[in-house]
Specification:
four-stranded antiparallel β-sheet; Secreted effector protein pipB2 fold; alpha+beta; 30% strand
């Protein structure tokens, strides 16, 4: 069975647009039992944020967003600071993976994209190991029709990363 995949805005103001993935109509963060607005999981590479150009003149958020999309599509190698080749979904507000992240393995097949082992990752990561006091509900696997999945990201790029 394939899951239905969407990228939706979940909060918007003058300086930021927050997104989440919706799987079969439910926010992925809720399925994992985390809050997108808890400091531990509020950094999401698809979020659109206004940057202080005076302080960070070379920072290009659009480049971050486009790179994230390329990774989610399986076109770029996933990278995280643990060098585990797992895709990062949610990370700490500081942007450091070392605070712990929610990540997964992406498998790209002819007509399907598969997310495997969606769970908390830190320095001591070992899939299946009990995550003490995390409250996170790991997800073993999600499967998406590849073309529908790709279209969601194409639409995101057209609308937000022009």
């Amino acid at each position: 069975m394939k899951n239905h995949f969407e990228i939706r805005e979940i909060k918007k103001d003058d300086k930021r647009i927050n997104f989440d993935f919706f799987i079969d109509g439910k926010a992925l963060s809720k399925s994992l039992n985390i809050s997108r607005f808890d400091l531990a999981y509020c950094d999401f590479d698809l979020d659109i944020i206004e940057i202080d150009i005076a302080k960070f003149p070379k920072y290009d958020r659009t480049k971050v967003n486009k790179n994230a999309v390329a990774q989610f599509l399986g076109n770029n190698e996933p990278c995280n600071q643990f060098d585990t080749n797992r895709m990062v979904l949610y990370r700490c507000h500081c942007g450091s993976d070392y605070c712990g992240v929610i990540s997964f393995n992406l498998v790209k097949q002819d007509d399907v994209i598969v997310w495997k082992e969606i769970t908390y990752e830190d320095d001591d990561f070992e899939y299946g190991k009990e995550i003490e006091n995390s409250g996170i509900k790991p997800i073993t696997e999600l499967k998406f029709a590849r073309r529908e999945y790709e279209l969601e990201f194409e639409n995101y790029l057209k609308k937000y990363c022009v």
